[in-house]
Amino acid sequence: MAENNTILQPGASIKPKVSEDDVKEILSEVYGLKCMSIKELNGYDDNNYYVKVDETCNNNYIDRVNEDGYTLKVINSLESTNPQFFEAQDELLIHLDKKGVRCPKPVQNKNGRYYIIKDFSSGRHLVRLLEFITGSILHQVPSSMDLFYQVGQYVAKLDEALKDFHHPAYDTHKSLWMMESVPQLTQFLFAITDDSRKKLVESVIAEFSKKISPLWPQFEKRMIHGDFNEQNILVDQKDGKWFIKAILDFGDSHLACCLFELAITMAYMMIEGKSMDAGGYVLAGYTSIRKLSSQECNLLKVCIAGRLCQSLVIGAYSILQDPGNSYILTTAKAGWNLLEDLWAQPEEELLKHWTSFQDPTQ
């Protein structure tokens, strides 16, 4: 089976260039919706727009206009070359909805399709529309150990809900953001100008290649979200307590081992909480649903470090391509300090510390 390789190459500029008129035209001509307001949302390689529309529509596939609005996504030119991957994403979202996991539902256009390919000034880009879910992004609310524990539980439940999902497009999908691609970060190290940081990343890549890459064929593969970070978790409040309402953005979903999903989540929550302890609460929540093997525990540190390197190196490269996109630097603000502290910690002591945490509400 041919491999759908959408791995970013040095020198590539892939982010879409889209005008408000483009957005209005797509909504009207493709989806039969009249745009009332547009707000551009954060996006790494893609363009995302929160749109509110008139309550009337000219689309036989929309039974009722979503009163909370929609998210229009214009996908980067690289991933737009693989529309089968987005067909797979749509099936995944529908699968999770049936399992009771709240996530944005894909919307069919006037032709009954879930996407179109459209020419823009920046090239050909795939366009999708998703129902918008109201709430607050985790990053927007006060950090708490209880929320980090909930995040751990939620990601474990999500992975359990996905264990019986399969789509052939995922079998061949490859991306630089997949953790198996950590060794390929060496191609982008020119974007790191600080020599000490570059050496730190090289050390992590070498350790990852030594410990993880040889074991990769042995790991059980299943669907994971792939980017469980503070910007993709939607929360709401009830009786003064924050709870997780939904999970957003499945653009990095792929086949991998559950260990990678946990490592990704712990990495971003430690950045968000500005503390190693946040990782311990995520781990406690996760293991209350799914237990880790001793092998997984021993590989946790290098996997977390590998994800931090991905975020920091790809971020440094991407800012060279798109200097005005401050969202790209979200991880860099605290990520380098965390990576330095994490990598300096002895593995056994770190694991002992993380496994000492329990449900903070008990």
From TrEMBL:
<dbReference type="InterPro" id="IPR050249">
    <property type="entry name" value="Pseudomonas-type_ThrB"/>
</dbReference>
<dbReference type="Pfam" id="PF01636">
    <property type="entry name" value="APH"/>
</dbReference>
<protein>
    <recommendedName>
        <fullName>Hydroxylysine kinase</fullName>
        <ecNumber>2.7.1.81</ecNumber>
    </recommendedName>
</protein>
<keyword id="KW-0418">Kinase</keyword>
<dbReference type="InterPro" id="IPR011009">
    <property type="entry name" value="Kinase-like_dom_sf"/>
</dbReference>
<dbReference type="GO" id="GO:0047992">
    <property type="term" value="F:hydroxylysine kinase activity"/>
</dbReference>
<comment type="function">
    <text>Catalyzes the GTP-dependent phosphorylation of 5-hydroxy-L-lysine.</text>
</comment>
<keyword id="KW-0963">Cytoplasm</keyword>
<dbReference type="GO" id="GO:0005737">
    <property type="term" value="C:cytoplasm"/>
</dbReference>
<dbReference type="InterPro" id="IPR002575">
    <property type="entry name" value="Aminoglycoside_PTrfase"/>
</dbReference>
<keyword id="KW-0808">Transferase</keyword>
<feature type="domain" description="Aminoglycoside phosphotransferase">
    <location>
        <begin position="44"/>
        <end position="276"/>
    </location>
</feature>
<comment type="similarity">
    <text>Belongs to the aminoglycoside phosphotransferase family.</text>
</comment>
